[in-house]
Structures are given as structure tokens and as C-alpha cells.
User: Fold this.
Amino acid sequence: MANFSRLRPKRMIAVMPWWALSSAQVDILVQRPLDKTRQNSKSTGRGLRVCSSERTNALFAGRLLHSEKPAPSLEFIETTCRDPQGAPTLFIHGAFAGAWMWGESFLPHFGARGRFAAAVSLRGHGGSEGRSRSPTAGLADYLADVTRAISEFHEPPIIVAHSLGALLAQRLLGEVKIRALVMLAPLPPEGLLFLGPWLLATRPRTWLEMAKVTLGLSNSREGRKDGARHVVFANQFSPEEARRYAALMVAEGLRALMEAHLPYPVISAHFLRIPSLVIAGADDPLIGCVTTMRTAAYHAAQHISAGGVGHLMLIGPGADGTARRVLEWIEQNGL
Assistant:
């Protein structure tokens, strides 16, 4: 378990089945009119799919964000709060994932605290459109998706991003206004440029698996997805849990993965006076603490290493503790 034992929630938080959050997986959400009491998001004129946790009063609503064609519509899952407290939060997932990953712990914890929070699925991921065109989608497309999601907020949001999503968030610094930045197991500012050689030297088996994924050496897109599963789940999940989570993962586009190896200018969050936090998984086979500490130093961010937590710290073991720690940091900074 993660070393967050000193943190205790004000009440027990139990979540709805997280796989029910994505309309692409299970259609159990009820169509209802837009709740006009929510002040932190704009209406798209479409109905909301609303569902509630089984044992808490936190509500979640899913809808599609529409853009001018040919841009695909994006899945947008949000908490529904009558009187939202604090700054709104946008969650950005990493490679192979989707907004559903934030539904297990983060959205329930934020909703139970009365905070408005939303998670977006990048094109070709989760319940978003564009799956057939995902091999040709690049990081610029993903950045456009995140910018589209940010435009839903009436004030600059806090960004909480994981892995590749954290790289996207870093590249948006200075381009969009945000209140704070929280990075979970983030790719460093230069992306995968130096991470590959580091993995080769320290964890050659992990490097080999990820090289196959990145270079498309597997026989199929499913083969690339299976290779990613082997690396990211490691020994943190039971076989049953790994199969269940993996069923919701998608094959990442090769163009996006290749572009993540190319350096790109990133402004330090400290230079922009944006408070930032980096949380590393002590058992992360992909992004070690040396890399996350370097990212934290670049942004003058607070750094935390969570023991017993791997790369997928937003689901499974340790996820509740990670969500509580992020909330504690946000509240300590008066956000």
C-alpha cells in the first residue's frame, strides 16, 4: 500500500463501478437535462448522462464535447456539485488510457469534497471519437483536445495529469491559463528523449517491451497494447484486475509515441508562478524517481515518492491514498 497512512478522509468513500463511466463500455447512464446549478462548466446544449456512486452522494455526468469538423467529439466526465468549492480541476490521462481511469478514485474523492472536476478522453481513447484515425494522431492533436476541454471552464483550472498526459500539460504551460499543475508519474519536460537510454541501461527487459510498442514491431495494434499491459501492470495488480483494466485500454497511436521522443521547448511552471506537485511511484518500472525528481526540479515543484505504488497510481492499489494526497496539497495551497 502507499505510504499515505497519516491521511484520513472525513468519511469513507466508495465509488461506483469505474468501468460504467465510459459510454463506450457500458450504457447505464440516464439522460437528464443539464443541471443549471453547476457554475463551473458550460452547456453544450446536449443532455447529460448522470450516475451516482453506490455509497456516496457524489454524482458523475458524461457528455460529448463537440468541435468543428474534422475534429472528433471528446468524452467529458464530470462531477456535479450544487455549490462547488475551490478551483475546478481537469484530469488528463496518459497513453493507452481514457477518462475512465479517473473514475475509480479521483473523481469520487473530488466530488465528495464538493469540488467540480472533469476528465477528458483524448481522441481515439475511452468514449471519444476518432478511434479509426488514432494511428495518425499526433501530440498537436492531443494538445488541441486538452485545450478544447479547458475551454469548458469559466476560470483557469487545476490540471492533474498522468504520464504522457503530464507531458501534454507541460507543453501547454504559457499557452493556456491554469491555476496549478499536479503531475503523476510524469514524462519529463523533454519527453522520452533520454528515458529510453536510461531504461536500456537500468531495466533492459522493460526497454525491450516499450521499444516494440513504440516502433510498432508487434504484429498488430493488439500486440502493441499487450506489450504495454505487461510493463505498466507489472506486479501491482492481480491477474483478474489486470485483465479487467486492460480490456478498457486502447492501442496508442505510433505517431504520438514517436513524437514524444522529440524535445520541445517547455516553460518552467515556477517561471510562470504556477504551483506544482510531482508524485512518483516508488515501484514504477517506467519512470523512476530520478526522472521525476529532475522534472520536479525543473518546475521547482514539490516531490513525493509513494511507496508500494507503480506507474498506474490513479487506479488499483494506492489510488485512494494518491487522490487524498493531491487533494490535501491543493487545499494547503488555498486552491
Summary: The radius of gyration is 18 Å. Residues 18-191+265-332 form a domain with the Rossmann fold fold (CATH 3.40.50.1820). The first strand starts at residue 30 and ends at 32.
